[in-house]
Write the structure tokens for this entry.
Amino acid sequence: MAENRQFSPLYGLDRWGAGLLDVNDAGEVTLRAPNDGLPTSLPKVIEALSERGIAAPFLLRIHHFLDQALLQLHNAFQSAFQSTGYQGVYRGVFPIKVNQQAEVISHLMQTGLPLHYGLEAGSKPELLIALSQPRSPESLLICNGSKDESFVRLATLSRKLGQNTVIVIESLDEFDVVHKVSTELGIRPLLGVRVKLTERVTGKWQESSGDRSTFGLGAHELVTLIDRMKAAGFLDCLVLQHSHLGSQVPDIIDIRRAAAEACRFFVELTAMGAPLTHLDLGGGLGVDYTGERRSDENSVNYTVEEYCTNVVETIRYAMDEAALPHPTIVTESGRFVVAHSSIFVFNVLGATLYDSATKPDTQEGDNHLLHDLMAVENYIDSNRFQEALNDALYYRDELRALFRRGQIGLAELARAEQGFLYLASRFKATARSRDVTGDAQAQLGSFVDYYYGNFSLFQSLPDVWAIDQLHPIVPLQRLNEEPTRQAIFSDITCDSDGKIDKFILADGASDALPVHDLKADEPYHIGVFFVGAYQETLGDLHNLFGDANVVTISLDGQGGFNIEHETEADTIAEVMSYVEYDPRDCLDAFRKTVERALAAGQVNTAERRMMIAAYKDALAGHTYFD
Ligand SMILES: *Cc1c(COP(=O)(O)O)cnc(C)c1O
């Protein structure tokens, strides 16, 4: 190839994908391997999986990316300790709710073993998962969330196994439960308390931060709790103070302020006699989804290294001032640890193009507005671009109005619509070579193509639907070829909400994604990046589209990969049983219907066989397009 242009910068891939992703000369997105090994091409992975019968859509998890984030967080704390002369240690815990998948948790625990990495459980099922995982004896098991007696009993009993299970008291009532259960069992628990910080943070969870948070104890309740604990002889069990700001905190100033306030509580509680040794700052460490490095909903204005330095510095300063030993720092960073490790891959099934290369044959008797419409072509290229756009839209709308009033027929309307699409292709071509601003930008925005993706937004990207989460989205192939189309993606549910129409590009958010023309004999795959946090179990069965395939791979550093784990997509029979249908009963009922039709002579025996086979095949098949 004489010249090898790369179009990946268009998508900002070099910015948000830094350290993880690249593009090779063939225009394919590649995954960086550990220790500077050879990168692995993502389209090659897709092809190899497809040969094994694992087709898109699927979630691809990369072990190495998971390890990398966890180690980066731990190393950042170690460096911050060194540079600030901090005397305490860091004990991270993984909040199970962020990604509960067994494969993820067990891999994290394995990598985290030498780091004394622990777990955070926010519910009874999560506690049961946490108790089943092999962990370092020095690691923590932090229990947050509302807890009933059986939760508290199990957590307290685990102290007998030498586990550092900390029950974080979230309300005054909860202490009564802890008191009762541990007295019954004769076991001293490790206790924590969740304090409600008054500082509010910016970002998506602003409204539920500060004193509007539904979690934790305010100043008055804290004082009451300490008195009660003292009276009951439990104050010596209170070793940890917890606070949590909410997820994806975009501004480092908020993190610093919150850490400083947490220290104030820590110092005061210690002065009241609580033997606190652990300061738990919860989650909130954000992911820079857009790579813009600014305090915005989908970005953050800090690196993990800055986060750690800021937190450690703040704590060291406050503790030194109060002449207290440096506590063990705990964070419950979930999103940062798992977000990068998963990529959702779907194939494009087809497109509705909002333009046409074919010019309609206008006829002499056609309405003059149709002739006016077609004449717009003559002045698109000049500096009358905006005027041409206004005119085209006006004539088209007038022609539609004529049709509604019965003044033109369907064939003439068809020529008008076709003529407009022809002009759209001319507008788009012209717009590619000039800077379009103002009204024209918005008008052209309504000419974007629909690409149909083989996925369900509700199942696989729930936060895109629910909270307008932005993920980097990129065609995985042909990035050495200019993407000549602008598209939004529609999923295969029958819900008009099932679409992706916000994207991250090099120059910020965009209402359309640059894509290539589809080729008849070539699959076109799209990657949605950084979907490892919160997406997997939040998804739902809208239109009964089930779980997609999940494949975990490791990179071999030779350009290849190994499959570490595979979970097959839900079959239709499985999905039906989730909503309480028995697939066998359904098959029986269908059989009877066909049998009656046979008896009535509506179908013959061959057709009967075909119908039953088709039903059975579909039951055993997947919910997405094959
Ligand atoms: C959800 C949650 C976390 C995880 O927060 P991230 O922002 O994903 O790191 C940590 N702690 C508590 C108490 C939570 O509720």
